[in-house]
Design a protein that fits this description.
There is one protein chain. The protein has 297 residues and is an alpha/beta fold. It has helices at residues 2-8, 29-35, 42-47, 104-115, 121-134, 145-156, 161-169, 174-186, 202-207, 220-223, 255-259, 278-293, and strands spanning 51-54, 79-83, 94-97, 188-190, 195-200, 230-238, 241-248, 264-265, 269-275. The chain has two domains: 2-169, inorganic pyrophosphatase (n-terminal core), CATH 3.90.1640; 174-293, Diaminopimelate Epimerase, Chain A, domain 1 (Roll), CATH 3.10.310. α1 (2-8) runs antiparallel to α5, α4 runs antiparallel to α5 and α5 (121-134) packs across α7. The chain is globular.
Length: 297
C-alpha cells in the first residue's frame, strides 16, 4: 500500500492510505514513519474519486471497516481489486487476482513497470518488504524465480535491504519478545507429531503489552518443529474472538480446513476467525486439524 501510494503521488494524483488508528503492528510501524504517506480521513473517503484495494480477499475485510462499519464506503465509485488470494471474491469493478503470485507487492511492482511509473528508492524499499514478508524471507515454496528477479530489480532501484530487514527481523520490542515466550510455552504437538499448534489468550496478549495487530507470523514457532506437516496458532486478540492461522507443509493444503470455519487464504497459508474464547473452541479446532491431516499419507 505504501509503495503504491508513493509511486502514484504527483501529476494531479494525491493517493491517501486507509490506515485507521491501531492498524499497524509494532513490527511494521516503522514503515509508516519511513514512507511518510498521507492517511485518509473520513472526509477523504467521501470525496475520493475511486479506491484501490490491495491484498484483500473480501470487501468486508477492507481496512476502512473500522471507520465505515456497515456503510458502503465506496458509494458507487470505482474499486480496483489487486490481490493474490485464492479465495478472492472478485468484489471490484476491476479485478486483477493472480493466485500464484508470491505477494501483492509483486503485483504492484508489475503494475508500476507496465504503467511507466518511476519507483523511488523508498517505494522500492516498501515493495521489497512486502515480498520479503509474504515469502518469509524468500524461504517458502511460493518463492519463484520471478519473485527473486523482482526483488533484485527493487535492490537495483535503491531498496534499503539492510535497514529494512534489521527492523523486520532483528528489532523486536520487549513486548513482542515477551509474547513469543507464551507461544513457546503454549506449543503442543498432536497426531503423532504431524500437527503442532500454540495459543495466545487475550490476557496473555494484553499482559505482554501487545494487541491483535501484533499477531502475525508467530505461527512459525510451532511450524518450525521437525516432522510437523500442519501447524496453527489460536489467538484471542479481540476478546471473545479467536483467530486461527493455519500453515501447511509439503503437499498439505490448509485452505479447505480454513473454509470449515468460514475462513480463506492460500493453499498452504490460510486463516479464519471464530466466535468464542480459546478454551471454548480449542478442542473443536484441534479435532478438525487432526482429522484433516489424516487425509494425507
Amino acid at each position: 500500500m505504501f509503495g503504491f501510494a508513493l509511486a502514484y503521488s504527483g501529476d494531479g494524483c494525491r493517493p491517501k492510505v486507509a490506515l485507521p488508528a491501531g492498524s499497524l503492528s509494532q513490527k511494521n510501524a516503522f514503515m509508516y514513519d519511513w514512507a511518510k504517506v498521507e492517511v485518509a480521513s473520513p472526509e477523504d473517503y467521501k470525496s475520493a474519486d475511486g479506491f484501490v484495494v490491495l491484498d484483500t480477499a473480501k470487501k468486508p475485510r477492507c481496512n476502512v471497516e473500522p471507520v465505515f462499519k456497515d456503510v458502503d464506503w465506496s458509494a458507487g465509485r470505482p474499486v480496483v481489486n489487486i490481490d493474490h488470494h485464492d479465495t478472492n471474491t472478485q468484489f471490484g469493478d476491476l479485478n486483477w487476482v493472480v493466485a500464484d503470485a508470491t505477494s501483492c507487492a509483486e503485483l504492484v511492482y508489475r503494475l508500476l513497470v507496465a504503467a511507466g511509473k518511476p519507483i523511488s528508492p523508498m517505494a522500492a524499499t516498501m515493495l521489497y518488504g512486502g515480498i520479503h514478508g509474504d515469502t518469509l524471507g524468500f524461504s517458502l515454496p511460493s518463492t519463484s524465480a520471478e519473485s527473486l528477479r523482482i526483488a533484485a530489480e527493487l535492490v537495483t532501484l535503491g531498496a534499503n535491504v539492510n535497514e529494512l530487514c534489521e527492523n523486520l527481523c532483528r528489532s523486536q520490542t520487549r513486548s513482542e519478545f515477551d509474547l513469543l515466550r507464551h507461544v513457546y510455552a503454549n506449543t503442543k504437538v498432536v497426531a503423532d507429531g504431524r500437527v503442532a499448534y500454540s495459543t495466545l489468550t487475550h490476557a496473555e496478549i494484553t499482559g505482554a503489552g501487545c494487541t491483535a495487530q501484533d499477531i502475525d507470523d508467530q505461527v512459525s514457532i510451532p511450524r518450525s518443529l521437525r516432522g510437523v506437516k500442519l501447524s496453527f496458532l489460536l489467538s484471542e486478540g479481540n476478546k471473545g474472538k479467536t483467530r486461527i492461522n493455519f500453515r501447511g507443509e509439503g503437499n498439505v493444503d490448509v485452505l479447505d480446513l480454513a473454509k470449515q470455519f468460514n475462513g480463506g487464504g492460500h493453499n498452504q497459508a490460510a486463516g479464519a476467525v471464530v466466535d468464542g474464547t480459546i478454551p471454548e473452541v480449542e478442542s473443536r479446532i484441534v479435532a478438525a486439524a487432526v482429522a484433516h491431516i489424516g487425509k494425507y499419507a
